[in-house]
Every structure is written in C-alpha cells, then in structure tokens.
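To: structure subgroup
Subject: Chain for Friday's discussion

All,

I'm putting the inputs and outputs inline so they're searchable in the archive.
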Amino acid sequence: MTARIAEVDNELLRGLEAAGFKLNCGVNGGGISSLYLHRGGGYYINVGASELIAEGKIALKQGAEIARFTLGGIVFADGTVLEADIVVLATGYQNMRESARRILEDEVVDRVRPVWGLDDEGELCTIWRDSGFPHFWFMGGNLQQCRYFSKFLALQIKAIEEGLRRL
C-alpha cells in the first residue's frame, strides 16, 4: 500500500524532495506503520504544510547546524543564510532508553531492553511491558494507544503486586 500511496502522491513527494525534505519509506518500504513499530517515530503526517514546502512557501533546511540567529532569519554553519519571519526547529528524537539515561543511572538503563521494534513473537519491544529492570516501564505512542495499552500494563503491575507474576 505504501508504494501505491507514493504513486498517487508522486508530484507532492517530488516537490518535497526538490525542497530538501528527506523522505523515509520506512523499514523495508513499510511506510508509517513500520516506522512506528520499529522506531516509535520518524515520520511526518501531512496536515497541509507539505504542499507549502513543495511550492516553496515554507523554506526547509536539513542537516546543517545553526551558527546564529539574526533579526531577519538564520545563518548556518555552512555559511548559508535563510531569511525567515518564523523559525521552527524540528530537532528529532532519540530512543526512549536515551531519554531515561538522562535522569537515571547507567546501571539501570543498561539493563533495560531495547524500546520499540518487534520481538521474536511480533510484539512491541518493552513498550507497555516488562522493561528488563524491575518496576520500570515505558509507555509511548499517541493518546489513544496510551489509554488502551495502559490497562494491560496496569494488569501486569497488579499481577506482580498480587504475587501472580514474578519479574
């Protein structure tokens, strides 16, 4: 289906590429679903800005460090200047383990299994389930998923508290 959608959106995708937008078709070409399952992100859902980027009404610069801001825009480390009324920084993200590392000791985080991706049984790794470190869990995803899967996580915690399940 990802290939078919890319066919339908071909003109828009070519315009985005020409503007400097780096396209990502996901793991093995699986699109947004594969990016979500394997990385927990790394995708963009168009809500109208893609057309503006492709038309050149929104400028885009990826992969260059900012040297400084000016009253009229940005000067990049490579010397290029981008005039702008508004600057939006889309800075990316890291795996949730690395976010945890900033607030927890390395000994804890080093025991935590990889977050996101699929295990041998096709289940999401570590999200809403045992992380590998006792009494430490990760939740992620959108609001609907958190509301739904938090019930399963609560049942796992309850089973541990009642002695029905061991860590």
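Points worth raising on Friday:
The longest strand covers residues 66-70.
The helical segments are 2-8, 10-18, 31-39, 49-54, 96-101, 106-109, 143-161.

D.
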